[in-house]
Amino acid sequence: MIRELYKIFKENNYATVGVGIYIFFILIAIFADIIATNDPLRINFSSSGLARNLPPSWEYLLGTTSNGRDIFSQLIYGSRNALAVGLSAALAVAILGTIVGLISGFYGGWIDNLIMRLADIALGLPFLPFVIVLAAFLGPSSWNVVIAIGLLLWPNAGRIIRSQVLTLRERGYIESAKVSGCSNFRIIFMHIAPNILPLSFLYGSIAIGWAILTEASVSFLGFGPSDVISWGYMLQDAYSSQALSLKAYIWFIPPGLCIVLMVVAGFFISRGYEEILFPKIKK
Amino acid sequence: MFDFWSIIRRFLYMIFVLWVVATIIFFMFRLMPGSPLTAFIGTTFTDEQHDLLVKRFGLDKSLFEQYTLFLLNTLKGDFGLSFTYNKPVIDMIVEALPNSIILTLFSLIIAYIFGVIAGAYLAWKRDTLIEGVSIPIVLTTRSAPEFWLGMIALAFFSFQLDIFPSGGTSAAGVIYETTLSKLTSLHFYYHLILPSLVLALYLQGLPLLLMRSNMLEVMQEDFVTMSKMKGLSSWRIVIYHAARNALLPVATAFTLGVGFAFGGNVVIETVFSWPGLGRLLVFAVSSSDYPLAQGAFIFLTAILILMNFLADLMYLFLDPRVSYKTKN
Amino acid sequence: MYKKLSAVLVGFISSLLLSFFVSSASAEEIRSMKLWAREQAAGPAPHTAALIIAQTLNELGLDISVNAVPWPQMADQVWYKRLDEDTWDLTMWQMVSRPERSDPDEFTYNLFHSSTAEKGYNFIGYVDPEFDALAEKQRVTMDPAARKVLIDQAQQHLADAAANAYLVHPLLNFAYDNSQFKDGSAVEQAGLGIKNIWTYLNIEPINGNNDLVAQSLDEIQAINPFFISGSTDSWITEIIWDRLLRIGPDGTPQPWAAESYNWVDEQTIDVTLRSGMSWHDGKPVTVDDVIFSFEAPMNAEIVPMYSPFVKNIESMESKGNNVVRFNLKSSNAAFLTSSLAKINLVPKHYYEPILQALEGTGNNAETIIEEKRIGSGPFKFVDWRQREQVILEKNSNHFNPPKVNRWIMKEIPNVEASLGQFRKGEVNFLTDYKGDPAVLAKIVEEDGDITLVKSIDVGFQYMAMNHRRAPFDDVNFRRAVSLAIDRDVMVNAAWAGNAVKAGSHVSPALTYYHKDGITEYETGLELAKKILADAGYTVKNGRLHYPEGVAEKH
Amino acid sequence: MLQIKDLSIHYVGKDYVVKAVDNVSLNLLKGELLGIVGESGCGKTTLARSIMGVNPQSAKIASGEILFQDNKILDAEDKLINLDYKWKDIAFIPQSAMNSLDPVYRIIDQMREILIIRGNHSKKSADKRSEELFNLVGIEKNRLKDFPHQFSGGMKQRVAIAMALALEPKIVIADEPVTALDVIVQRQILDLFNDLRSKLNLSIILVTHDVSVVAYICQKVAVMYAGEIVETGPVKDILERPFHPYTMGLNNAFPDLHSTNDFLVPINGTPPNLINPPIGCRFKSRCPFEVSKCETKPDRLIKDGREVICWRTNDQSDLLAKSKKIETWESQE
Fold this sequence. Notes:
- The structure holds four protein chains of four kinds.
- By secondary structure, chain A is mainly alpha-helical.
- Chain A is 73% helix and 1% strand.
- Chain A has helices spanning 2-11, 13-30, 32-35, 71-107, 109-124, 127-138, 143-169, 172-179, 184-220, 231-240, 249-277, and strands at 45-46, 49-50.
- The longest helix of chain A is centred in the first third of the chain and has 37 residues, at 71-107.
- Chain A starts with a helix and ends in a 6-residue tail after the last helix.
- Chain C is α+β, with helices and mostly antiparallel strands.
- In chain C, strands 1, 2, 3, 4, 15, 16, 17 and 18 form an eight-stranded mixed sheet that branches. Chain C has a four-stranded mixed sheet with strand order 5-14-13-12, with no helix packed on it.
- The relative contact order of chain C is 0.18.
């Protein structure tokens, strides 16, 4: 796995750029307290009242929102939310998809049947509408998106992993492991799981982008939390505060760009990965 | 897998999935915070009025009773009356549906025509500068939030340049006598262009990348090499053989895309004031209009499931290999 | 080793116990609280206000966070759950402008009378027999001057009790395109601004324009003479269906479909119907139609929405010569405003069969799916595509026909798109602007052909406190909380200068009933701290505590 | 008829060059059935495909040329001088007919494509010709309307043969045409080849790793090893009296009618890496008869109408005797 990763970065510029972007945002998220110049939620006042819609200055590097909040600091803190949502969604998809795929592929029979039926139901739920309903059901929170992605997107990963497990199961060394009396648990996790980890990783990295984009859409539609700074929230705030009419490009372009960067990084990595996983496409 | 009885079985199974989804949704709405009665709060709102509403909405019945009633009515095709509009939910859906279908299909078709051609082209141009530049651009368009693209498109093409109208399906005062006259009016399509272009910009990435990788894969196939040996022209090989084969998964993706885009259009419908099913759902959810929300959600689900099913059927018609297996 | 550990454990537990006794012996800390508010998109100004208020109140040693949720959740919690859970403490709330609110009765009585505390609009739980007496008395006092005194007293009484933390009366911002309408031809109505029937009738289209294209952010839910739903609907119904009286630009009821009215005594009124009126289908408007229009809502099962407005009517009779006599159950100063100017006149020949068909079906008039919408008003119904637009056209046969040919209302779900369409001329009358007034002002300046009219709202924005729960059961605490909020900051920061300070439920727009000087009061953190300290509240470790001996009731 | 002169084909990668075909010369006569035999990876498929002008982008003609009826069809400039020979003069039968037929079109459409576009047939005459061809390869003509996947493996191979013959080519190159088939079908197909050769006076190049196939129908054989032709000559001579130890080894690796051996033994080891092919004889590391001289490149020896590159041709009878003993191959490590 590590060797494969290394291979990706050696051979694939896309993946390197993608990881570079992630490292950049991870550093920003870690050092947000230092980088940010203001509390992103604080309403700032100036001598003439609320510090609203201020142009960029040393105090407010990207100016302020209509509520007198510092845009730059929101942008910085937004990376935390994006990473938290993106990575936990990736983890949710990877873990659920892997476990389900392993169990379903390895045991087969009624378990497999049941899981595949559940997968059909999950795939039958329209994604964004379901997230909206979930947000209304659970109350506004960034975690809704993670939950929804976990609940609805595992079948994609699960099905592919399942078919991979099915082919692996027929391999000689699995047979010999069985004959030599290894427990099923051991076979699944020691012998099969390592072989499908790359697939889990692929689906996980795809989920990152999904999660961030969905979070943004849900925020935009007004089902997001209002006390957590995310880039989606910033866009929603900018839109409903009429940043377009104010021509406050400095307000609604940067968060959008950050989302694009973060999501495209995931695509870059998964693309690099795909080339390793499906070498047929490779030269 | 595709004989008559299996199609019937598949159909029944779809209804089963629909039932499960409907049940989940029913209970989610009933148990979610907020009350549909809040829409009626007013200074002159009386207790009697409140009780009447509770009775009319059926909220005085137990949850189980409400559920069985909901199932029975849904089976009859009756989604009930919208709490806020007092109109049959089905009428409202039927009114919104054509708008959603047109927007979805129109943008998907633009996206897929462009994506397929550009994808085939990029496969042809493998390892060139064009490819090196295009792929990141395509991935970037797929990464941008739709509403953000919509906001920028709106600000630029409508408010700034005044090329396109900024929303809705018609200008003020234009009356479409029937749905048909609407769908055949140029005025309608003029309003459709901007939202569908934005949507298409977002959607084209998938067919493009899919087509490209399929093409690359197919170009490695023996029958393509054979075609070269046969002395056929490059154009004929690329279009008649490679593209035709590479299109199979793209066609399936298109069908799946219809089901998917349908639910995902919520955002674009909001930005462009487009009176579609997605906006209806958002409105219904945020005003706790259970029957309307349920109806819209079940419709979106039904379309999604149906499209998943059609995608399978489509393979049957496009790929003779699959139909062969089914005959044996 | 073991001994050491147990010694530490004993020490720890005993210190825990000790701190428990110490804290219960002295004052109790005031719990952390939520300030409920609607989400930002529903109105940026109140949202910002909530954020500022929370930030301010926390400086008193409170721990308040803003909980922004959609209306159904917020209202469910505040309004419906007051009898069982009752967990809310503070909430942002608003009363919006409506023509019938030009009479102070609706707010004075329904918002604060104890009879509405359990299930009505007095959701804050304000119960005060003295005030009840005032509210009841103003209702039956027909003499305006005497009534004015009572309304003044009521306003002062509520201010002293700090019943609500009134924040502002927003300025209503409406604008029209003066390249399409003659500048100044819109009519301003007290407390409502230029979005009113008088404008729709009088505004003069110019430069070849024929249509008034208005806009609504909210979805139009019904166009039904027996149903009031969303905030926009009544603006449409009131111009399709006439009423006997209408609230005039000055805020007082004046004859409309009635030629005149005459109080026979305090409980009897004779109304003379204007002659020569006809329905949109050409049939004449008769006294029978008028009586039908008022009788229909008396059946609360069939027309529940309007039934409160006819509750006070004992009986009606035709006196000949187009005269209808209303016999009231009790005298009511607001009768003209809340009944005669409220009930839509409908043609009996069209609606009677429809309403009869509803008997016993369990459905009511709100569920009518209109094939036709027949009124007698200045505009006729033409077309409505849901979530898109409503089209009405001029009724040339009306006694007061409008100058525009068509009245169109586009449903545009967001402010930005609305403004964009207004600037492009796709909309020529901005009738629903919930956005940032500063943005609008800037656009007016840039575009040069927009007439912007700002008017003080008859409604108001406030922060409501739950009187049933400590510490809000203490008038001193309520006063401190209310006075801690700097109203200048509210006006200038939250509403960006686009509001006036509020001190009571009667807007300065209602010049007659508004109590002079009620908005002049001192605010500030220091004042609030002093009130709290005088009442025995203390601050420990940065958190406010109840006075000695006062415990939170749970 | 077809002449390959000193042909070298290199696969050029980023930082390496694979010499897949190295200085190969061959001559195919009219009506001749030439077998090219060797292990996989020895360059025989590259050679066959280069005749059809379809090697991958990375393959470069380093030297030499290919002549068809004295016309150049490929040279070191790596340009196809005249494309029109394809299929009309030289046709190809692939190893796996399964993947070489376009799965989404009916056979008749694929036949028509060749006949109409390449062969100037009308639709009607194309259909008639297709029926003839099916008749020729022994398939019922109503199966023309079927899709490729509806045929069994052997049938598909017949379809591929029919397609190859569509434009009456003078040469047919068959790349492992029977490898994927079971023995009985193999024999049927090979018989068909033989039949067609004599009936149509075809020249056929048959590329295979299976000596027994060569032995069964070929008249002439070229043995390829590590990009070189190590031995060539009439089949009967080569199989009965091979000069090159590699040919001896191959003989032992397959069941063969001509062989008197009663054992099968593979040659140990794998062919050398062609990025840096060994200096001298390329087979030496696997050869049981390696001597010090083998460190230098052996000359090409022309003897009795046969060509061979080996230092030890003089010890031929001795080595042949030894090669028929199983220990010779097993001890070699």
